């Protein structure tokens, strides 16, 4: 089938976006602002506000346990933001570079190296979504206790119950067949 004007996709409202506009949008707005610095700035701002709030809470007369828990949660938030920045920034920076300076597929070795770098940085970026558990385990004794309670007390008990399905009780066997000596004695009677 030859591609002709009848097979071309035509926009319904007459609006087309050129590659230049898409490149400018992704270079100067999407990756730097929406994907990169805006989430980093928002997370940093709120972590600093939380830190400032905890410093103010320490000055007030609150129970020591409450102050300790506030410090723990603030430490977790700060470490979470630091991990977020460290894991997001390299991928965003490389993505902006790759869009502005694309490597043609006609140079296979350079293209393969670029794809490898992109894959590694995207893997590092995806670590950001699973690192919360480990940050919370490291910085919060209360979270460690809760995880221990859930894993050992609840999950382990259920798993042990499911796997030890063998019933260890002694049951009488009602299907006993009479021995030959008993049959002989019954015949003699």
From TrEMBL:
Signal peptide: none annotated. Residues 1-136 form the G-protein coupled receptors family 1 profile domain. Keywords: Membrane, Transmembrane, Transmembrane helix. PROSITE patterns: G_PROTEIN_RECEP_F1_2. The chain crosses the membrane at residues 28-52, 73-96, 116-139. This is G-protein coupled receptors family 1 profile domain-containing protein. The lineage of its organism: Eukaryota, Metazoa, Spiralia, Gnathifera, Rotifera. InterPro entries: GPCR_Rhodpsn_7TM. It comes from the Eukaryota. GO terms for cellular component: membrane.
């Amino acid at each position: 089938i030859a591609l002709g004007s009848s097979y071309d996709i035509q926009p319904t409202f007459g609006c087309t976006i050129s590659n230049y506009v898409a490149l400018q949008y992704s270079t100067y707005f999407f990756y730097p602002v929406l994907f990169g610095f805006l989430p980093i700035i928002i997370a940093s701002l709120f972590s600093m506000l939380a830190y400032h709030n905890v410093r103010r809470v320490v000055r007030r007369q609150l129970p020591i346990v409450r102050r300790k828990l506030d410090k723990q949660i603030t430490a977790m938030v700060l470490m979470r933001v630091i991990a977020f920045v460290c894991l997001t920034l390299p991928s965003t920076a490389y993505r902006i570079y790759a869009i502005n300076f694309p490597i043609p597929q006609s140079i296979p070795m350079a293209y393969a190296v670029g794809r490898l770098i992109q894959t590694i940085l995207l893997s590092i970026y995806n670590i950001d979504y699973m690192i919360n558990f480990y940050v919370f385990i490291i910085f919060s004794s209360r979270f460690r206790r809760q995880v221990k309670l859930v894993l050992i007390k609840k999950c382990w008990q259920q798993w042990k119950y499911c796997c030890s399905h063998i019933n260890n009780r002694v049951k009488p066997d009602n299907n006993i067949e009479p021995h030959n000596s008993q049959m002989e004695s019954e015949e003699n009677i």
